[in-house]
């Protein structure tokens, strides 16, 4: 992963929401060994419905950290306005009503969540 991207994830405020921001951007606060991602956009209306799906591979130690950090952050950041840095106050990601989604059969450990 690009060092600048990792630096941006690590600068997100509020701090405890950093793993959620990184996951929403299909990344994490840790380097991965491989990644595949897909964006799906609905053209059925003007609302711009959008879904992102990612499959990422980490070393075993980093994978455990990624999942632990993301689960903890989702529990604490059910609603957040996250900013990648103070230098860009208009950039960021806002969401509410996070909820874990049931998934299975996709690797050693899988986590899916939704938010609006």
Please give a handful of descriptors for the protein shown:
116 residues, alpha+beta, two-stranded antiparallel ribbon, 6 strands, globular
Describe the structure.
The protein is globular and about 40 Å long. It is of the alpha+beta class. Helix 2 packs across helix 3. It has one domain. It has helices spanning 3-11, 18-24, 60-76, and strands at 34-41, 50-57, 80-82, 93-95, 99-101, 112-114.
Indicate the proportion of strand residues.
15-25%
Number of helices: 3
Give the terminus-to-terminus CA distance: 27 Å
| Average pLDDT number | 76
Q: Briefly, what is this?
A:
This protein is α+β, with helices and mostly antiparallel strands.
Task: Provide the fold topology.
Layout: H1 3-11, H2 18-24, E1 34-41, E2 50-57, H3 60-76, E3 80-82, E4 93-95, E5 99-101, E6 112-114
Antiparallel strand pairs: 1-2, 3-4, 5-6
Helix pairs in contact: 2-3
């Amino acid at each position: 992963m690009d060092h600048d991207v990792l630096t941006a994830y690590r600068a997100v405020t509020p701090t405890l929401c950093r793993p959620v921001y990184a996951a929403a951007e299909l990344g994490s606060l840790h380097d991965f060994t491989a990644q595949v991602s897909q964006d799906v956009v609905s053209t059925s209306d003007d609302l711009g419905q959008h879904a992102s799906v990612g499959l990422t591979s980490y070393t075993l130690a980093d994978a455990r950290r990624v999942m632990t950090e993301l689960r903890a952050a989702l529990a604490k950041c059910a609603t957040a306005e996250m900013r990648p840095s103070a230098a860009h106050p208009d950039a960021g990601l806002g969401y509410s009503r996070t909820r874990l989604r049931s998934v299975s059969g996709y690797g050693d450990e899988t986590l899916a969540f939704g938010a609006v």
